[in-house]
Amino acid sequence: MSLQVIPPALERLIQDLCKLPGIGQKTASRLGMTILRRPANEARELADALTQLHSSIQLCSCCFTFSESDPCSICGNLKRDASLVCVVEQPGDLLAIEKAGNFNGHYHILHGVLSPMDGIGPAELKIKELEARINSGTIKEIFIATSSTVPGEATASFLIDRLHKRPVLLTRLACGIPMGMDIKYADRHTLARAIESRSETR
Amino acid sequence: MSLQVIPPALERLIQDLCKLPGIGQKTASRLGMTILRRPANEARELADALTQLHSSIQLCSCCFTFSESDPCSICGNLKRDASLVCVVEQPGDLLAIEKAGNFNGHYHILHGVLSPMDGIGPAELKIKELEARINSGTIKEIFIATSSTVPGEATASFLIDRLHKRPVLLTRLACGIPMGMDIKYADRHTLARAIESRSETR
């Protein structure tokens, strides 16, 4: 009923915006209306940025993160430790770890997690490429930093299984109570993991 | 620090997305990453929709809503009552009233509310155009449906002041308790207004 009064060009934009994660019909309408109210050059600028995106960004041939240069700024940085490689699910995870500010190694992006239901097996992830990097002989430590979700844990287990005979140290991101959190509000799985992984005071 | 590892083309898209209402740095990063992970033609489709938006949509010369035709589908609909005109702040308000489904008149979009702090006075809104429509003589009722916010109320008062000598009936959207709301959770201003506007049972 209301569709009749929404101009088709606006409706098209709204439907396209709806395909993005976390954007429903209402948010998409609000965004579309705002873009329409603002000057046309702002919409053009956003359209340009979208058009440029895929043409100027590629995957780094070493770590498979998104980058405009190959190798990326991290793989090409001689000040970083090439013997330590952090394995993450997605480029967004790399950013999160970079923001933490205390990791100075290289990365390896899997581009997903094992998810048999969605048809994503080891061949769909950059696992062979990780093994090829290990074969090259410069890597001493593989630091697995997949998320502590069910598929993230499954992927980590798979990697540990596959790599434990290689001459590299396998490490994992610690799980526990978030900084500043009151123990009584922690869920029991997190608390159990934090107790299990308790460390000696220094 | 993290900027260094975000490719400039992605950073540009993220900054453009940040300009939209309700989208902060984190949401924009997530959206940008998602768009980058998905096929390039999806980004192109969204870019196309954005580019087309302003070129195919104009303001209806009668009610000033966004439309691809002039007059718009409402002003051009002979089945609708042209003697009843609903005055709203923005085209989005028109959609909300259309969705309610029980209004069969025409509209008039002010394109804003009075806001002296932002330099928006009566001349910046489509008030002269509303007066011209009244002068044309077909309008019997002006139904003011601005929001019940401070600037919305101020705009309504201004319109009532300006139009009360005209030979048209001036009406306003009713304020009261939302449907299905428990009285004890209503704020006192809404409750006071609802008591004031109480109506006789039929």
Chain oligomer state: homodimer
Sheet-strand content of chain A, in percent, reads 5-15%
In helices, the fraction of residues of chain A equals 40-55%
What is the CATH architecture annotation of the largest domain in chain A? 3-Layer(aba) Sandwich
Tally of discrete structural domains of chain A: 2
Please write the string of helix (H) and strand (E) elements of chain A.
HHHEEEHEHEHEH
Q: Give the radius of gyration of chain A.
A: 22 Å
Number of strands of chain A: 6
CATH class of the largest domain in chain A: Alpha Beta
Structural class of chain A: alpha/beta
In short:
The structure is a homodimer of 202-residue chains. Chain A is α/β, with parallel strands linked by helices and 202 residues long. Chain A is 41% helix and 12% strand.
Structure commentary:
Two copies of one chain form a homodimer. In chain A, strands 4-3-5-6 form a four-stranded parallel beta sheet. Chain A has helices at residues 8-18, 25-37, 40-56, 91-100, 127-135, 150-163, 188-196; strands at 58-59, 66-67, 81-88, 105-109, 141-144, 169-172. Helices cover 41% and strands 12% of the residues of chain A. The radius of gyration of chain A is 22 Å and the shape is globular. Chain A has two domains: 8-56, Helicase, Ruva Protein, domain 3 (Orthogonal Bundle); 66-200, Dna Topoisomerase Vi A Subunit, Chain: A, domain 2.
